[in-house]
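Lab notebook, design round three. We kept the backbone fixed and only want residue identities now. Task for the bench partner: fill in a sequence for the structure below.
Input structure tokens:
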């Protein structure tokens, strides 16, 4: 029973951490939490209500991302964050369901195990049942541990997403303060300016590429010329060596008398 109590305590602790994370995101984004159920995660036994509250807060964060996406690039970034949050929401819901099922299974197995331990039946079959239930309980506990590790990873990912949301909102807020009256013409002019800069960069890269290729061709030509000069020099050295060899051989022959 102590194992089940520990699992329940750990589950509630993780739910409270998740709830605090969502509250911090909603508070920093100044999002009103209207029409959301209020559940005390430390005492409530209603897992469905807990899940509804947490998923409701996630939904508010998701809607905030949609509202905050003002420009095309910012909308794409917000949509990416929204998709990630949607995936995390599904994974969290699945983990909650799996966790609840595993906790209930562990409780049932613990109850059956207590009944078997209280019984005076010492037959081989009873002992095998005890070992089987213990094995199942250990497997369930290992699975719960793995799910909790996945939950911690998801919480870390949500914290990272929170940072992206905050940066996104600050960036968009700053843009709204600097240029609240930006017109379509100004936007088009800015886009055209960026396009011009992009074209200039492309043209510059092409020039640099051509200059590089020209330089490489010149270096290759110089290399080939040096290789040819080396080959010619080696050939001349061989010819000189042959001439010296012939002169040396002639010098060894006896000199005849002149008549």
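Proposed sequence:
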């Amino acid at each position: 029973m102590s194992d089940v109590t520990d699992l329940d305590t750990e589950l509630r602790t993780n739910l409270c951490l998740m709830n605090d994370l969502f509250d911090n995101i909603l508070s920093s984004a100044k999002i009103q939490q209207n029409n959301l159920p209020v559940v005390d995660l430390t005492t409530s036994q209603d897992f469905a209500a807990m899940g509804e509250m947490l998923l409701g807060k996630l939904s508010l964060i998701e809607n905030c991302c949609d509202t905050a996406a003002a420009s095309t690039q910012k909308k794409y970034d917000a949509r990416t964050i929204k998709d990630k949050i949607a995936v995390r929401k599904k994974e969290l819901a699945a983990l909650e369901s799996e966790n609840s099922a595993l906790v209930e299974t562990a409780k049932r197995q613990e109850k059956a195990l207590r009944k078997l331990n209280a019984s005076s039946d010492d037959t081989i079959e009873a002992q095998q049942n005890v070992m089987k239930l213990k094995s199942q309980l250990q497997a369930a506990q290992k699975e719960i541990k793995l799910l909790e590790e996945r939950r911690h990873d998801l919480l870390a990912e949500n914290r990272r997403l929170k940072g992206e949301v905050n940066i996104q909102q600050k960036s968009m807020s700053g843009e709204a303060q600097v240029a609240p009256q930006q017109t379509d013409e100004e936007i088009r002019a800015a886009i055209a300016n960026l396009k011009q800069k992009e074209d200039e960069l492309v043209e510059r890269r092409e020039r640099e590429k051509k200059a590089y290729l020209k330089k490489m061709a010149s270096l290759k030509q110089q290399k080939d010329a040096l290789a040819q000069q080396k080959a010619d020099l080696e050939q001349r050295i061989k010819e000189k060596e042959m001439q010296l060899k012939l002169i040396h051989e002639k010098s060894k022959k006896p000199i005849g008398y002149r008549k």
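Keep this in mind before ordering anything: The chain is about 85% helix and 0% strand.
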